Amino acid sequence: MDDQDKRAGLLSGGQVTRREVLKKGLIGAAGLTVLPAVMSACSSSSATPSAGSGGLSGKLTVGSNLSDAIPKTALAGAIATFSALNPNVKVTVNTVDHTTFQNQISNYLGATPEDVITWFSGYRMRAFVDQGFFTPIDDVWAGPTGALYTAGFKTACTGNDGKMYMIPWDTYAWTVYYVPSLWQSKGYTVPTTLADFKTLAAKMQTDSLVPIGLGDKDGWPAMGHFDIINLRENGYQFHVDLMGGKQKWTDPKVVDVFTVWKGLLPYYQSGAAGRLWQDAAAGLIAKTTGMMLQPQVVETATAAGAAALADLDFFPWPNHGTQWDAEAALDAPIDGWMLTAKSPNASADQAAAKALLAFFGKGSTQMLYAEGDPEGICPANDADTSLYTPLQKKQLQVIGAAKKITQFMDRDTNPGFSGPQGMQGFLLDFLSNPDQDLNALMTKIQKFWDSLGS
Amino acid sequence: MPDRAASASAPVEPGLSGPAGADVNSPPGRFDRFPLNLLPFVGRQRWHLLTRRDKMILAVMVGIPLVFDLALIWGSLVVDFLWSFTDWQGTGDMTGGGMGHRIVGLLNYQQLLDGTYPFFWTAVVHNLFWLAFLMFVATPIGIFLAVILDGQIKGMAFYRTVFYLPVVLSLALIGIIWQLQYAPDWNRGFIDGTLHAFGYNVPVIKDLPLIGQWFRDVSKTDWVGGPLAIVPTVVAASWRHVGYICILYLAGLKSFDPVLREAAAIDGANARQTFFRVVFPVMRPINIIIVVITTIEALRAFDLVYIINYGRSPMELLSTLITNLSISESTRIGFGSAVAVILTVVSLVPIIGFLIVTLRGEEQQ
Questions:
Q1: Closest residue of A to B192, CA-based?
Q2: Are A383 and A418 found together in one domain?
Q3: Phi-psi region of B311 (alpha: psi -120 to 50; beta: other; left: phi over 0)
Q4: What is the CATH number of domain B125-310?
Q5: N or C: which end of chain A has fewer CB within 10 A?
Q6: Could you say which residues from 47 to 86 on chain A have a Cβ atom under 8 Å away from some Cβ of chain B?
Q7: Over chain A (454 residues), what is each successive 10-residue block's mean pLDDT?
């Protein structure tokens, strides 16, 4: 707990002020260290819906990127509860395909967005806040919401101007999933070191399994692989500095990351660039793939039925034998809700929108979602963790054990840098041709970063 | 000619020139007022052939499309050209300062050309490959099918439907269809599934010395993900292009004068000679149209790739670069405009070529 307290102090302004962080141009970095509020949160104040906003009326539009069936249904459940509490508010949800939502976010926010929308915390939130697309919601945070989050979450929801812009909704850890019954039948054990991990992968190969599943058609799944290897090889601070442009991609330490990664590629599922992660996850559930680093596997398992979900487990990425193992750092992105600035009904709907945001910020609401979509866990510390599935309880534990937490590559750096023609492209290039001159690739990446002028 | 001019030069009341007030007594004069060879443009003295009403109609019919054309095409082109010298992000103050744009001169072009933005040259190579494949593989196949279908074959309508069907489908749909063909797991992709069923899963075949190895290797091929993913994609595009060219050429062949073919036969030419020495040269106008259509298809290739993987590596095309730069999470409109300007300039080459050929042809006639 010492460490956590220290970090809490750090984040709440004890040693490093926000201004100093800003000065370093690394406000994103501070947001990365998200204290897993939940872990110390057994306050069991099972918050009965006391939104107290029954007098609200009007209409409200919600833009959602929760397009997969399970999260979509889970959100619908939460919205239905809000509607029951506020019968005079007509809530309309517009769900857009997850990837399309992301690709078109700029145009969407600049045109006629819905009042309340889903988005991601960190650098990725601030980049759009800076462009004036969002309305601050300090008044929501000033209410009961404020007490429900640790400093880490607050920082992740704070814009560069120091105002609050987001209500956390969901967080989940990037860990390695596997099917225990398959492992038991083959006599595999959970690897704790990279060497064990490789030995296990090699053994899986001889057992005619695909050792490490990957579907990188959407471009982003491979980023999680880079993140975790970099975190283990070079540590949290280097990773964050690299994402923020304070370290160079041409640094030999980055080449090391790719070299280690290259050593694992023989065990990767071939054809990753043309495969959807959903298809890769389906292979894991079908027991043709041995393991997979991707949190959303839970979604696939849930869709496959209760038996598949019960026969799913995960372990944190193995140690690399470096000094950074102790950090146990991992990607645990926060998804949240924001109030748009350019919604055509922004002013008329604002009261209802803020009521909805406050409602979303409560542990009891997040629990409605986390129960429906057990992929993630609730950021609010008043969530009733006793309702968690075993996997969610384990996530809570893994996130709690992590001394450093990052968001995800595409949330921790300039969106232009991480896009389809950017790191997604470079990583796909690496995956399809790992034997290329890595130094040349790093030079290309650094040159591209420099050209963005960020 | 003189009497036509005389009758037309007689002042005609505007009210009578319309269809309702047509002068029944002198129908020739009425038709002469709309000569097919655009008489008014032949000589200066004939301008008065146009009544005020005609001029108004002309102004409206030419003017409105012209305004739209200028505003929507040439206007955007000019704006696009100007943006290409800025680093405008697509939001914020366009007049400069703040989050607005800065003028960066030729920096965007420099970064495109010197490889700082490495995806540009990859895209150029892909577009060129796309063009070459359509031009030298798909188009000849289309022409070949047209020639075959032009003969007397039983069930012509059936074959024609089969080859033309893909043209009816949108490229987005074709993208989805071919994704199912190419999906990399045997239980999801048709090609892998077929190989799995007949090849690398069958003990006898998979143990064959060479073929077995081939089956196993192909089973590992990442059709739309590997470094050469553009090849399977252009094959999918060709599926449609072949049908398109086939129907186009077939229409041309139908209007081909059979006398020429008979003459060739009498002269003792075989089928091949007849096609290359007689049919092909006579079909010149169609050939030119086909070349132009193929070039345009290659330059505007977009839908298929975008539906398959949004034009990510390894399937960049100039069109997807523009789209991803202009409408994506981080918009770089200025930079994307530079790519668009380059694509425009490249597109002008075949268009100008086409115009020169066409105009020269008309002069010769």
A1: A271
A2: no
A3: left
A4: 1.10.3720.10
A5: N
A6: none
A7: 38 37 37 37 35 69 90 91 92 90 84 93 88 92 90 86 94 96 96 97 95 92 96 95 94 97 94 87 94 91 89 96 94 94 86 93 92 88 90 91 90 88 92 92 95 76
How far CA A227 is from CA of A224, A234, A257, A427, in Å, comes to: 5, 10, 9, 12
Instruction: Give me the residue from B89, B222, B328 closest to A271, CB to CB.
Output: B222
C-beta of residue B300 within 8 angstroms of C-beta of residue B322: no
Residue ranges matching CATH 1.10.3720.10 in chain B = 125-310
- The ipTM assigned to this model is 0.77
Measured between alpha carbons, how far is A269 from A280 in angstroms, rounded to an integer? Answer: 8
**Is residue A312 within 8 Å of residue A95, measured between CB atoms?**
no
Question: Given CA atoms A360, A363, A368, A371 in this order, what sign does their dihedral have?
Answer: positive
List, as ranges, residues 37-96 from B with C-beta within 8 Å of A.
Answer: 87, 89-92
> A99 in helix, strand or coil?
helix
pLDDT tens, N- to C-terminus, chain B (365 residues): 344 444 444 444 444 444 444 444 444 444 444 445 554 455 555 556 778 898 899 999 999 999 999 999 999 999 899 989 988 877 655 544 444 567 888 999 999 999 899 999 999 999 999 999 999 999 999 999 999 888 778 888 888 888 889 999 888 899 889 988 888 777 778 888 888 787 777 777 777 777 777 776 676 677 877 778 889 999 999 999 999 999 999 999 988 888 988 899 899 888 888 889 999 998 888 898 899 889 989 998 998 998 888 888 888 999 999 998 887 777 788 899 999 999 999 888 888 888 887 788 777 66
For residue B99, the distance in angstroms to the closest alpha carbon of chain A comes to 7
For an interface test with A, the pick among B122, B185, B195 (most A C-beta atoms closer than 10 Å) comes out as B185
Residue B288 CB partners (closer than 8 Å, separation 6+)? B354, B357, B358
β A58-64/A116-120 pair status = parallel
**Structure tokens belonging to residue A39:** 């872990």
Q: What is the pTM of this model?
A: 0.79
Please indicate if any CB of chain B lies within 8 Å of the CB of A423: no
Do A105 and A158 lie in one domain? The reply is yes
Give yes or no for A444 touching B (CB within 8 A). Answer: yes
At CA A365, angle to CA A362 and CA A369, rounded to 5?
135
Same domain, A160 and A207: no
The pair of three-digit structure tokens given for residue A345, joined into one six-digit string: 């009904």
A371–B contact, CB cutoff 8 A: no
**Is the Cβ–Cβ distance between A80 and A47 less than 8 Å?**
no
Q: Report the CATH number that the domain containing residue A147 is assigned in CATH.
A: 3.40.190.10
* Yes or no, beta carbons of A219 and B312 under 8 Å apart: yes
**A432 chain-B contacts, CB cut-off 8 A:** 222, 225-227, 313-314
**A112 in contact with B, Cβ within 8 Å:** no
d(CA B342, CA B340): 5
Which chain B residue's Cα is nearest to A418? B330
Is A378:A31 a contact under the CB 8 Å cutoff? no
Query: Chain A partners of B185 at a C-beta cutoff of 8 Å?
Result: 271, 275, 279, 283
Looking at the structure of chain A, the number of domains it has is: 2
Q: Are residues A10 and A154 in the same domain?
A: yes
| Count of CB atoms situated within 10 Å of the CB of A347 | 9
Return the pLDDT at B27. 46
Q: Which domain range does residue A303 map to?
A: 176-330+414-451
d(CA A414, CA B217): 39
Residue partners of A366: CB distance under 8 A and separation at least 6: A169, A170, A360, A378, A379, A380, A383
The per-residue pLDDT for A454 is 54
Cβ–Cβ gap A428/B314 under 8 Å: yes
List residues bridging with A330 in a β-sheet. Answer: A405
